[in-house]
């Protein structure tokens, strides 16, 4: 089975379409796993929800999905993120809102657990350090787990007697799934933050037992023009050019 793993689409339709197109060049996507933050920041929340729903998929809830439906306050958000969250709320159709309201926080699919942040704090903790990975592993009941939220692709490998190793993932890196327990972050589709502005996603091929990380160019200018037309904050428009 070919399964595309996406995180942090953030209402960026051009990036999401580019990623799906890239994944589909090698064969059909049979299942799509989404790690949350389908909406927030970008100009196309409704279209991104609709595109996701065209696939056999599952998506966990991210903090921006929850903020858009008022289930999480925006007090902890920085001012531009809060402004974009309020704008997103106004764009949602009743159907789109209902879809976000029904998202689970943690989902198991075969050997994988899917969560936006960490298993300690599904909707808001960033998994950035080896200590956080260790705490997350203690709660992980499957061999592998998938997280988003930081928009930075990495793999954490569990090791006995010492903290997990955290390794950055670059375009074309392929992990062979074996005995070692892993946490994988496929990076962000719609707002990468590792200095590479290209959209990021991962492809899991269950027959080959591999997960490969890919970076895909998309029309950043088109997304930025839509954001300008929508009056979204300048800082959010500019950061897409830098991947920060
Ligand atoms: Zn996000």
Structure in words:
It contains 8 helices and 12 strands. The radius of gyration is 17 Å and the shape is globular. 32% of the residues lie in helices and 21% in strands. The strands form 2 sheets. It has a 6-stranded mixed sheet. A 6-stranded mixed sheet has the order 4-5-6-10-7-8, with helices on one face. It has a single domain, classed as Metallo-dependent phosphatases (Purple Acid Phosphatase, chain A, domain 2). Helix 7 runs antiparallel to helix 8. Zinc ion (ZN) binds next to loops. The site of zinc ion has 7 residues, from loops.
How many helices does DSSP assign? 8
CATH architecture: 4-Layer Sandwich
CATH class: Alpha Beta
CATH H-tier superfamily: Metallo-dependent phosphatases
Major sheet summary line: 6 strands, mixed
The percent range for helix content is 25-40%
> What overall geometry do the principal axes of the alpha carbons give?
globular
For the biggest β-sheet, the strand order reads 3-2-1-11-12-9
Strand content: 15-25%
**Could you please say which CATH topology applies here?**
Purple Acid Phosphatase, chain A, domain 2
- Tally of domains: 1
Order of helices and strands: EHEHEHHHEEHEEEEEEEHH
| Amino- and carboxy-terminal Cα gap | 33 Å
